[in-house]
Design goal:
GMP synthase [glutamine-hydrolyzing]; Rossmann fold; alpha/beta; ATP binding; 5-stranded parallel β-sheet; 326 residues; globular; nucleotide-binding; 12 strands; GMP Synthetase, Chain A, domain 3; EC 6.3.5.2; binds xanthosine-5'-monophosphate; single chain
């Protein structure tokens, strides 16, 4: 029978068998998957795990601070923070194709992990315990949708599956590869992770980079970060966090429409609200949010975020839409 305790026991044994006496690193994204994967590996190999948090500049407002504080406080894990904003934004410059963005982000993550791994070894002061293992919080649906599972689907390249570079030198450790999100949350609970981590809404590794339809620039990211923060604030204030699976806010950066504000004409961008309800992200329905909440979000975003003059609601289920727009 499936129990979270059994999964923990099995996976801890499997991780020990795979890693032996070597070292591993784990990329933390702030999401529940990488947090639970890291906690499992920490349980298996203790301080031979170092977590790496890559600040790629595609994070939401307050996200970096949260990873640095909450997760370390809960687990006492060793954390290395890498500021890689310039690296990612340079690599993404001029790129609007969604799959190309995903591949670039996946590749840059690995390059940053490689560099971090050699620094960690150097800091540990011994040449013979090189980091050979990379822990990832890959879930079953990520594998299937990237075309890497038994299914034939190839819907989009999740950054940590189909988006990996071909010359990968790390051996992957993926203790959640057979699990769905609700099971991961149960495992996280079993491992004693706090509610704020276990019940966090999903946020994709490529971050806001795949929520800007068009080229990713720092100005566009700043604008989207503001709009997203307002939507999250209002959804939380309305007590809807646990009712929705997640609510991407998407910036249509190449679209402009005419508006009016005060006495003047505006010619700004629309943002899309994409609230969804789901069990496992393989399918989803659009969430019927209360009109008052939608109205508050719309009013605040158009008042507070310069250059956004329209808020639209995505009322498409998955299929035929995916949850993210890219
Ligand atoms: P889609 O857009 O495929 O999203 O319906 C399904 C779920 O997966 C998340 N997602 C990702 N998570 N790396 C991740 O860690 C990715 O590359 C990625 N792409 C999508 C998405 O937020 C949703 O929860």
């Amino acid at each position: 029978t499936w129990t979270a305790a059994n999964v923990v026991e099995e996976q801890v044994a499997a991780i020990r068998a795979q890693i032996g006496t070597k070292r591993a690193i784990c990329g933390l994204s702030g999401g529940v998957d990488s947090a639970v994967a890291a906690a499992l590996v920490q349980k298996a190999i203790g301080s031979r795990l170092t977590c790496v948090y890559v600040d790629h500049g595609l994070m939401r407002k307050g996200e970096s601070e949260q990873v640095e504080k909450d997760f370390v406080a809960a687990t006492g894990v060793q954390l290395k923070v890498v500021d890689a904003e310039k690296r990612f934004l340079d690599a993404l410059a001029g790129v609007s194709d969604p799959e190309q963005k995903r591949k670039i982000i996946g590749r840059e993550f690995i390059r940053v992990f490689e560099q971090a791994a050699s620094e960690i070894v150097a800091e540990a002061g011994s040449g013979d315990d090189a980091v050979e293992f990379l822990v990832q919080g890959t879930l079953y649906p990520d594998v299937v949708e990237s075309g890497g599972g038994t299914g034939t689907a190839n819907i989009k390249s999740h950054h940590n599956v189909g988006g990996l570079p071909e010359d990968l030198t790390f051996e992957l450790v993926e203790p959640l590869r057979k699990l769905f999100k609700d099971e991961v949350r149960m495992v996280g609970q079993e491992l004693g992770l706090p509610d704020e981590i276990v019940h966090r809404q999903p946020f994709p590794g490529p971050g806001l980079g795949i929520r800007i339809v068009g080229e990713v620039t720092r100005e566009r990211l700043d604008l989207l970060r503001e709009a997203d923060a307002i939507a999250r604030e209002e959804l939380t204030a309305a007590g809807l966090d646990r009712d929705i699976w997640q609510c991407p806010v998407v910036l249509l950066a190449d679209v402009r429409s005419v508006g009016v504000q005060g006495d003047g004409r505006t010619y700004g961008h629309p943002v899309v609200l994409r609230p969804v309800s789901s069990e496992d992200a393989m399918t989803a329905d659009w969430t019927r949010l209360p009109y008052e909440t939608l109205a508050r979000i719309s009013t605040r975003i158009t008042n507070e975020v310069a250059d956004v003059n329209r808020v639209v609601l995505d009322v498409t289920s998955k299929p035929p839409g995916t949850i993210e727009w890219e």
